[in-house]
Amino acid sequence: MDEPTYDALCLLSFGGPEGPDDVMPFLRNVTAGRNVPDARLAVVAEQYERFGGRSPINDQNLALIDALRAEFAAHDIDLPIYFGNRNWEPYLADTVAQMADDGVANALVLATSAFSSYSGCRQYREDLDRAAAEVGERAPGLHKLRLYYNHPGFVDAVVDRIAEVHRPGARLVFTAHSIPVSMAQWCDYESQLDEMARLVAGRVGADWDLAFQSRSGPPHVPWLEPDINDHLATLAEQCVTEVTLMPLGFVSDHMEVQFDLDFQAAETATSVGIDMRRAPTVGTHPAFVTGLRQLVEERTAGGPVLWVGEAGPWPDPCPAGHCLAPATSTPTGGRPTP
Ligand SMILES: CC1=C(CCC(=O)O)c2cc3nc(cc4[nH]c(cc5[nH]c(cc1n2)c(C)c5CCC(=O)O)c(CCC(=O)O)c4C)C(CCC(=O)O)=C3C
Ligand SMILES: [Fe+2]
């Protein structure tokens, strides 16, 4: 592929409220155009309020940016790093406008989502298209880096994070954000999670399962299962007493990790008599930061294309028609054009 010369990297993430007054407007941004009932928003708002109305996600992304700046400096990569979000400040469109002001002609984009799904992949690409359209002709070219769920840097960091808390003999349970089954059918989310869980568990040497967390939406709409809380109860029935929990589907310990796992799932574990330890997400683990630098060098310096497992590197750009939104979430009810 013919690569342009890149003059910046933009970290693209979900965003989160900075204080109590931000919580409801943030949640309305997240769920705009979708049928998430107000009752569900109220429940989630309460979860943010437990954290003083402030999500840890923005600080975690800033920490990752700091780590990447140091990594770039140590490897003579001369790319300024920008930060833009889908749902909160700094909003992506403002960041793209800033890049245009600064004379950036082409930027690489690193999304904080390792796996393939509408929420974690295509929706970020839609965000980029919308932000570029908003800024107009002077907007830089925005080039998303390929998915890195099977990059050795990510996988090595996951293995190492598990080692921080794992006890030999404990059951290793991986979690990822549940998504509607109607969303899962258009992407490789489940198979990617399954393959990486198997590979990581093999390296740790543990029996393992994959469970899902943080589902929303009405109960009659099917989402990926088992839910982590139900699964802990099932494990207890099988006389499992020690669990290592690894939130494989996330790259930082944001609200959904700290609330849904450290608070809710931990309570479930206690109530069913399981001694559970949660492994940290990759965060700024040096192996992860190295892997992200290699992902950039793949595009800027002819660096090697690295991956582990069977699926091969995620294609760059994404395959047409992949990671589509579920039909019910589009205004027309039809399939969006790829
Ligand atoms: C696959 C996936 C990821 C992982 C990939 C990625 O990282 O992108 C992810 C990440 C995140 N999800 C987050 C927060 C929320 N997700 C929601 C809602 C939803 N997520 C979905 C999927 C995912 N979500 C889906 C299918 C919905 C329902 C419909 C919809 O609205 O699309 C809602 C609305 C209320 C609710 O229904 O729970 C909130 C508040 C935060 C921020 C945490 C913080 O603040 O620290 C993060 C990193
Ligand atoms: Fe989410």
TrEMBL record:
Keywords of this entry: Cytoplasm, Heme biosynthesis, Iron, Lyase, Metal-binding, Porphyrin biosynthesis
Subcellular location: Cytoplasm
Any one of the GO BP annotations: heme biosynthetic process
Broad class of enzyme this protein falls into: lyase
Family recorded in the similarity comment: Belongs to the ferrochelatase family.
Pfam annotation, one family: Ferrochelatase
UniProt: Fe-coproporphyrin III binding residues: S55, Y124
GO molecular function: ferrochelatase activity; metal ion binding
EC number: 4.99.1.9
Keyword Cytoplasm attributed: yes
Residues annotated for Fe(2+) binding in this entry: H177, E256
Coiled-coil segments: none
Organism this protein belongs to: Ilumatobacter coccineus (strain NBRC 103263 / KCTC 29153 / YM16-304)
Pathway(s) per entry: Porphyrin-containing compound metabolism; protoheme biosynthesis
Family matches, as CDD domains: Ferrochelatase_C, Ferrochelatase_N
Function: Involved in coproporphyrin-dependent heme b biosynthesis. Catalyzes the insertion of ferrous iron into coproporphyrin III to form Fe-coproporphyrin III.
HAMAP family in the cross-refs: Ferrochelatase
Main location: cytoplasm
Protein name: Coproporphyrin III ferrochelatase
This protein's record includes keyword Cytoplasm: yes
Gene Ontology CC terms: cytoplasm
Catalytic activity: Fe-coproporphyrin III + 2 H(+) = coproporphyrin III + Fe(2+)
